[in-house]
Amino acid sequence: MNGALVGKRVRGAYTPFEVTFPSSALASATNVLTVRVFDKAAFIEPGHSSPNSTSSIPLGFDPKVGGIYRPVNLRIVPRERILEVSVLPNIQALAVSVAVSDEAIGTSTLELTITEKETGTRIYGPILQSVNFDRSKFRGLNISISNLSLAKTWTPEFPSLYRLSVRLLGPAGGEDSRELEFGFRSFTARDGKFFLNGKPYFLFGAGSPPHYENPPEAVARAQLQALKQAGVRMVRFAHEPPAEFWLKICDELGLLAWIEGPLYADDGPYDLANPAFIDQASQEMTAIIRSLRSHPSAVIWSMGAGNCMSAARVDEGFRNATTAALENLVKSCSRFLPSPAYVVMPDSDNRGLLPSAVEDWHVDSGWYEGRLADWLPFLRQWTLLRKGADAANPPWVSSEIQSGYSSAGQGVPVGSTPEITATRMRIGTPPDDSAALLEFQSQRIRTLLEQARAFRDPRKNRLAGLFPFTCANWFYNPMTPQALSPKPILEAVGKAYSPVIVTMNGMRRHFYSGEILDASFTIAHDDIKAGTITTSRLVCEVSGLGGQDPISAQSEISSIGYYKSKSHSLALKLPETPTIETAKVRVRLISSETEIAGNELTVRIGNRAVCDPNPKDLAEGVGVYDPQGDLVRFLEAHKFQVNPLDNLTQLNQLQGLIIGPDAYDHYIARAWPSFEKWIQAGGRLLVLAQEKHESRWRFSGPYPGDYFASSPEGWPSGIDFVNLRIPDHLLFEGINRKDMSNWGNTGVLATSVLVRNDSPPTSAPGVRRTLADVITSSNKAGWGDIVYEYALDEGQALFCQLHLVDQAGVDPIAGIILRNALRWVGAAHRPVLARIPPPMVPFKAPLVGSNRNEVVAKEAGSGPNEPIRAVPLPNAQFETGTFTDQAGTRLHGIKPKSPNGEVYYDLDDRFWFDQGGAAEIQVQVICQKPSRIRLDYDSSDNLLGIMSVAKRASPRKVLEVGVWKILVFSVPDARFANRQYERCDFRLVVEEGDAVFGPITVRRSKS
């Protein structure tokens, strides 16, 4: 004060405090009060890496900085004064808490008045009453007010606010007053649902506003208003609690608030086993609660975010300490947040790892990767309503469906890894259509939300809330009052959050003319104001096909109650089209001749004669290498004459070669020197698939019952969106960018991603250009090449990761791409191999028929043409050779070199691929000491979930040493779907001792 130190405070980011100073510190005229805040880093203790590792440092969103970033008020008050007024609301009832200063302790007089804020109508008081404040009870007093029959409830639809006026007349005659705005409401969580004022209420959420960036209040209001207009009902203030003006705006607009404490795991790990730290955290949370709890919007309270998931990746002791600390914080805070006014949970993103009023899962990859077709299977697995009298059924929400990253560069590329992908989504890189990219992702979020709403069924599941999560400048960019420009994602969220929606369930985007469009729709009703929708009709219409009249079908729909959904199907025959045309499928729900909900989808309808490949597309000089057989069967069904490649000497007669799906394998890799010389001489190589690479929605941690960071069975995989980089290439002739936008959603998907700058195994320099790529992961360099062309001297290789064959028969776009690919590979001139001095590398492709009962690898899987191949991996290396036993028997064998004693094997897919059945694996082994050998095989045992990829058979003991012995493993439930590492089917493991694995046989069993 006036330059003299009058007090200091070391602890507490949120706890209030008072400073008392003598009157001698005051000047006679103007007084200047200065508050100085030091950076948190100044408090780091020796040996600690960050401030949050010690209990003596204030908590907060960013542990490495400090400052005043929230509004500060200075009030001049009398000595006999009111310190705090808070309310605990209910429906037509109120509990008022008043705390006073020491000088007001004793008998005082309180006057209470309640008026409606909008009209000024008084519904209570003024009531004068004599009260006695007790120092032992926090200098406070609780007053109950009931039977307020004129009170209107507060809801997002009708945010009725009231004003409580409190006037204090102290023992010495001093006077003070406070006013508080509040609303009458209740909010509970039970039986898989949230209840607002006693009625089930689905949370149309959004998160998170930039409340930690301290925007001007005008910007905050504009952002929240836009969310409200988009149908948002609840806002998650993530990672730390908001300043009070955010909640004041939510109160006025009608937005529920999810308030998160400052224990954000990314700023940790916190010392949750330290009692002093937990005590401080409890004080901080209590202070936050006392300052914000009277706002009617503040209904869900969390102690922090991500702590359960972070702890689950560490040792059991840390997990237990974290669980105990969070549960104790919940107990401590619940004293100030009692039911039925509030819901208190230990941690956001808790995933059921500890008891919680709300089960919350963060789905980080909603924006970037994962097929939409896998979204509903994921929800079915984790939102199931549990049965039994003792079953806990907390509502299930995803409070973070990732919808993008913050625009840190405000339209300028930023160098961080996540921002590389995010920036490209915003502004693109030539020749991207950035507007189309952002529009696709926006519609993707809309589809996720709509599908989840249609799936919600309180009789079967606990799905109760959805929160597309994004920094606010994905909604608006930049964050200034003059330029609040909503992004397409906000418009998409608004459509998904219409009170009543009609969803199109899994509808394809590409059709052949004349097909029957059998469309399934779901109506989801969440309009709390409308009540039951009585009679209505559902109308489906296809229009926009040249000059043709629209075609339509309709059906009557029975009544639909609030918080319920109803599914229905309609069928109509698509008209004939001369080529391939764009049409619009529109569905409307009509009641009393008024459209109350609708949806539409742009589709492509093609003529088979135009879109299907035909024999003239395949030149005579083109061969096919297709051990899986899918491509050959497809071509033969279309009357193509194929030249199967089974020996490299055939290259002398070929000008083009097609390698079929899943056939760019170890055989081709070993023979690549021959292919390289053939391409250099002018050949064209079309590779329709690489080795399968698992590209899945990122699973960011463990799940109930397992503490490993692995993906559960059924976790979404694959990629929907394909971005054409060179759309005028022959491969994409006749199609446009939008045809590829939902490529994976209809089953025609990119199952693998080519590593950027990864070229064929060639020693000669070539020219590579990307024709199409995909968004792969938000936490990596996020764009993966999926189609690229590699020019090598006179010839070219086209590597295409689009799975075409399975869906080419039902998808005209797939048919066109396959037709174009056949034309491309046949457009080469015949290579003149006689000019190449080096001899061709000997190579003979394996010939394994799927009708044979057994396959044998006589060279232990190390031979060049064996149907069972031992695959060397970084952590499973081996050495090959010939090994002779004591009896003189000499066999080829492979000896594990890794500490785990593992050898992985890949079984030829033409013999067995992705089908259930009994199998027998026979292997000859020689050991130098008593040993134990185990088989881990790809199983069809669904009860094992993800672990079915490596089901363990009973180990076999080898007691006789120095001789070749035969071990037989009989397995009843083989699958062999290439699901182990590097697409392998089984592995042999030396559990004890040592072993050399020799010839190996796999045969089909009858039982």
Kindly describe this structure.
With 1007 residues, the chain is an alpha/beta fold. The chain has six domains: 1-68, no CATH class; 82-182, Immunoglobulin-like, CATH 2.60.40.10; 187-500, Alpha-Beta Barrel (TIM Barrel); 514-606, Immunoglobulins (Immunoglobulin-like, Sandwich), CATH 2.60.40; 615-835, Rossmann fold (3-Layer(aba) Sandwich), CATH 3.40.50; 854-1004, Sandwich (Jelly Rolls), CATH 2.60.120.260. It is 16% helix and 30% strand. It has 16 helices and 46 strands. The chain has an eight-stranded parallel beta sheet with strand order 15-14-13-12-11-18-17-16. An eight-stranded mixed beta sheet has the order 28-27-29-30-34-33-32-31, sandwiched between helices. Strands 36, 39, 41, 42, 43 and 45 form a six-stranded antiparallel beta sheet that branches. Helix 1 (217-229) packs parallel to helix 2 (244-253), helix 3 runs parallel beside helix 5 and helix 8 runs parallel beside helix 10. The longest helix is centred in the middle third of the chain and has 22 residues, at 434-455. The chain is globular, with a radius of gyration of 34 Å. The chain starts with 81 loop residues before the first strand and ends with a strand. The model is unreliable at 50-62, 365-369, 405-414, 471-479, 691-718, 777-781 and 836-843 (pLDDT under 50).
